[in-house]
Fold this sequence. Notes:
Elements: E1 3-4, H1 10-17, E2 22-23, H2 25-28, E3 36-41, H3 47-58, E4 65-70, H4 82-88, E5 89-90, H5 92-95, E6 100-105, H6 121-134, E7 135-141, H7 143-153, E8 159-172, E9 186-195, H8 199-205, E10 209-214, E11 218-223, E12 229-232, H9 242-252, H10 278-294
Parallel strand pairs: 1-2, 1-4, 3-4, 3-6, 4-5, 6-7, 7-12
Antiparallel strand pairs: 8-9, 8-10, 10-11, 11-12
Amino acid sequence: MPIKIPDQLPATDVLRKENIFVMPESRASTQEIRPLKVLILNLMPKKIETETQFLRLLSNSPLQVDIELLRIDDRPSKNTPEEHLNEFYRQFEIISHRNFDGLIITGAPLGLVQFEDVVYWDHLQRIMEWAKEHVTSTLYVCWAAQAGLKLLYNLPKRTREEKLSGVYHHETLQPFHPLTRGFDDTFLAPHSRYADFEPGFLDTHTDLDILATSDEAGVYLASTKDKRNVFVTGHPEYDSLTLHNEYVRDVGEGLDPMIPVNYYRNDDPSQTPRASWRSHGHLLFANWLNYCVYQQTPYDLEHFSEDRFTKDD
Length: 313
């Protein structure tokens, strides 16, 4: 089944060229089906690139998914045209009275910034609090995972001395959990962060189900018992060249970055990298949509109630 996004969204042409079924609103309105309503809070600077990456993963499902894009505030963007934001993104106040099946909060380049110094921290907290009563399942990605752990468990910000950048091997710890259904015993996924997610620390200070870890990268995937909050510390949505573009950017800014691990052939940045995590990313998002969203959400979103969630779901 397709994802439903505006025809004018730049991602539409990209996805159609990749043979991904993108449905116009006019056709969707004729189908006797309730699509899943998924909200994406895009905190990344290059919003068009990021929204395309997430839409690609959300398309790999038999479910019809209706996407809405949310911006954190109305400050001008250095990397995204204002016309694009005004046409395709909603302000929180416009949608705050509604309920959604799913919410995705993306990463943000704020790894070395303290939470209280993030200019939109209070507003982000407000959205996360709102989600507790208005969203069936929230997916926190990379920096957003750290922010979500702060909000839900009051965990302090934990920062690595060196940036974690590259493609890392992970081990599936709970292969029969709905989120890891179909996962290989080991799999690859990219990371690009300063945040530290040490398994022992999360195991001691939270009641999360820790589902996948890496010896080098720490916790990769974790979930609350009711699957209403899912934390992904890496970037399964990344394109094959995203880590390369970040590396080139950091070199250009004189940051002397480490070469991303297990990414370039022979660790040579002049070699074109190849994605080794696409199948994992598609499966992870399909599982989230099916088991954490579709199987949990009410048919009528107006009847949203926290009472239907139990730890045994």
